[in-house]
TrEMBL record:
<dbReference type="InterPro" id="IPR002877">
    <property type="entry name" value="RNA_MeTrfase_FtsJ_dom"/>
</dbReference>
<dbReference type="InterPro" id="IPR029063">
    <property type="entry name" value="SAM-dependent_MTases_sf"/>
</dbReference>
<feature type="domain" description="Ribosomal RNA methyltransferase FtsJ">
    <location>
        <begin position="17"/>
        <end position="196"/>
    </location>
</feature>
<comment type="function">
    <text>Specifically methylates the uridine in position 2552 of 23S rRNA at the 2'-O position of the ribose in the fully assembled 50S ribosomal subunit.</text>
</comment>
<feature type="active site" description="Proton acceptor">
    <location>
        <position position="153"/>
    </location>
</feature>
<keyword id="KW-0949">S-adenosyl-L-methionine</keyword>
<keyword id="KW-0963">Cytoplasm</keyword>
<dbReference type="InterPro" id="IPR050082">
    <property type="entry name" value="RNA_methyltr_RlmE"/>
</dbReference>
<protein>
    <recommendedName>
        <fullName>Ribosomal RNA large subunit methyltransferase E</fullName>
        <ecNumber>2.1.1.166</ecNumber>
    </recommendedName>
</protein>
<dbReference type="Pfam" id="PF01728">
    <property type="entry name" value="FtsJ"/>
</dbReference>
<keyword id="KW-0698">rRNA processing</keyword>
<feature type="binding site">
    <location>
        <position position="113"/>
    </location>
    <ligand>
        <name>S-adenosyl-L-methionine</name>
    </ligand>
</feature>
<dbReference type="GO" id="GO:0005737">
    <property type="term" value="C:cytoplasm"/>
</dbReference>
<keyword id="KW-0808">Transferase</keyword>
<keyword id="KW-0489">Methyltransferase</keyword>
<dbReference type="GO" id="GO:0008650">
    <property type="term" value="F:rRNA (uridine-2'-O-)-methyltransferase activity"/>
</dbReference>
<feature type="binding site">
    <location>
        <position position="51"/>
    </location>
    <ligand>
        <name>S-adenosyl-L-methionine</name>
    </ligand>
</feature>
């Protein structure tokens, strides 16, 4: 689908972000203030790097951003903010969690802007997006600190309520956001989980 260069495209260019998608995180942050100085942030599907750059600016020099994407990306140009580590992995790789756990003691915020390659079938795109969201939620269970935040893109479809029902017991608050910068015709929405609560069973196992 051909994309019009709109207000957010030019704003991103002016503000030196590689993609207009940055405002889908920035708007959520302006509304809910979940990114805080000093936090460690895991950014799934980070390429080309706008969310990582934005998060690095908010968490600042004492924080850290780890971006994961199946595509290699060019080094990000940063003037200040947290150090950004980019790792080239498929999020379904079994090596990912041991590697992250070895290098960092968990994360305060897990972001996922992961999107499947769209097929033209709304049903197939929804199911593939849902698989990525479920993997992000699974990784949250393994890597997110108690009381942490989850912010995840989902292509809408019939199984949205089921996914929200899976999120609800794991967070104090679950909200669905549709930022203004997300195109009206796009089926994407964003699920925000605040206050991660590790399930009791999992607590006992660890
Ligand atoms: C919309 S882009 C992310 C844009 C990014 N948030 C930014 O602002 O620059 C979606 C990304 O998800 C990545 N992705 C999709 N499936 C993935 C997977 N299984 N593992 C890792 N990355 C994946 C894609 O490679 C793509 O770069």
């Amino acid at each position: 689908m051909r994309r019009e260069k709109d207000f957010y495209f030019y704003k991103a260019k002016k503000e030196h972000y590689p993609a207009r998608s940055v405002y889908k995180l920035a708007e959520a942050q302006e509304r809910c203030r979940f990114l805080k100085p000093g936090q460690r942030v895991l950014d799934l599907g980070c390429h080309p790097g706008s969310w990582s750059l934005y998060a690095a600016g908010v968490v600042g020099a004492k924080g850290l951003v780890v971006g994961i994407d199946q595509h290699h990306g060019a080094e990000l140009q940063q003037k200040s903010g947290a150090e950004i580590h980019r790792l080239c992995y498929d999020v379904f790789s079994p090596e990912l969690v041991p590697l992250l756990r070895h290098r960092w003691p968990g994360f305060h915020v897990l972001l996922s802007d992961m999107a499947p390659a769209t097929t033209g079938s709304q049903y197939a795109d929804h199911q593939q997006s849902l698989a990525l969201c479920r993997r992000a939620l699974e990784l949250a269970g393994q890597l997110l600190h108690e009381n942490g935040t989850f912010y995840c893109k989902l292509f809408q479809g019939g199984d949205c309520p089921a996914f929200l029902a899976e999120c609800k017991p794991l967070f104090t608050t679950v909200r669905v956001l549709k930022p203004r910068s997300s195109r009206q015709e796009s089926r994407e929405i964003f699920v925000l989980g605040l206050g991660y609560r590790r399930p009791k069973q999992q607590e006992n196992k660890e």
